[in-house]
DNA sequence: CATGTCCGTGATACTAATACCGGTATAAGA
DNA sequence: TCTTATACCGGTATTAGTATCACGGACATG
């Protein structure tokens, strides 16, 4: 095993992560946010739908900047959910 | 061209990013930090040396947590360097 | 009603991230 | 000197992120 396949937990985290981003996007369109972040709309869609559960750091950084989000808060939110999931 | 190859700017940013992480690591060993972050030492080394210029978000998040860094500060530092590079 | 546009989606192509292995260099210690 | 530990480096294998293409649905417009 040379590259650890994504665990179900990681995928679940990715879904929560995408849900957070989608919620933060609000009523803005995907393309608008994608353009603002400098990524393709398809990539944004994959991230939001959780099909890209572990996106690149700078992709998220650009996205967070476009959405006015804090990276620390994003990570914290996912970490908390992770802990909750582990605790549950 | 379906996936944009990393631009020299992105690679340079990756090197700066790695340098930041290395500086934050201080005198601690790679393996210690890697274990604390839950990643392999090789991956940490690649990130620090800039050979993995666009690491995954959660990889960086775990690393930042292990190093006691702020993701926003990290992103800001790289963004500033980016702007400076663009302005220069 | 037909058509064009926009948004979201699925499939596909290709590069990059991650992990493991072996080898090398350097410094510390026995 | 020899061993050990740390870090660096190259190669390899596999999975995953990202971008383009093509399609379907919704909506406005002619």
UniProtKB/TrEMBL annotation, chains A, B:
Residues covered by the HTH cro/C1-type domain: 21-74
Name of the protein this chain belongs to: Helix-turn-helix domain-containing protein
Organism annotation: Actinacidiphila acididurans
């Amino acid at each position: 095993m040379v590259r650890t396949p994504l665990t179900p937990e990681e995928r679940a985290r990715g879904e929560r992560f995408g849900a957070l981003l989608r919620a933060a996007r609000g009523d803005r369109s995907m393309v608008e946010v994608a353009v603002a972040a400098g990524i393709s709309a398809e990539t944004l869609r994959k991230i939001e739908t959780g099909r890209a559960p572990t996106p690149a750091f700078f992709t998220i950084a650009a996205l967070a900047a476009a959405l006015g989000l804090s990276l620390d808060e994003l990570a914290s939110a996912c970490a908390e959910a992770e802990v909750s999931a582990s605790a549950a």
